[in-house]
Amino acid sequence: MDDETGAAASSPAQRKAAAERIDDARASGQRLIDSLTRLWDGVVEASTMTNIDDEHDPEGATVAFERAQLRDMLSQARADLDDLDRAAERVRTGAYWVCERCGGPIAPERLAARPTATVCITCANKATR
């Protein structure tokens, strides 16, 4: 990736706005992870205090489902945080505004709506067909 391409596509104000948007999304994601972790800890603690047999107790399936759901939500929230970290790095390098597939520009509106976008809308549409 040519550093001039990204630098030319963004002004200092755009870089600052993108960094702030990513930082805000990252803070929100971290709050979600903290909340989900507290819920996870509560479910784990509650299950150790009871004698639930997940396989034979009617409530056991619910507890197992809750654990699985929380585990998956935590995993997704952590992956989202990783994506935001990569987006912040792309802002720093100037690659944030450049599509990883075609090398064309990523519309500012797309990045405003989805700060972790790495491809332009045209390439994103091609990938979903």
Automatic annotation (TrEMBL):
Domain of life: Bacteria
Protein name: TraR/DksA C4-type zinc finger protein
Organism name: Streptomyces achmelvichensis
Phylogenetic classification of the source organism: Bacteria, Bacillati, Actinomycetota, Actinomycetes, Kitasatosporales
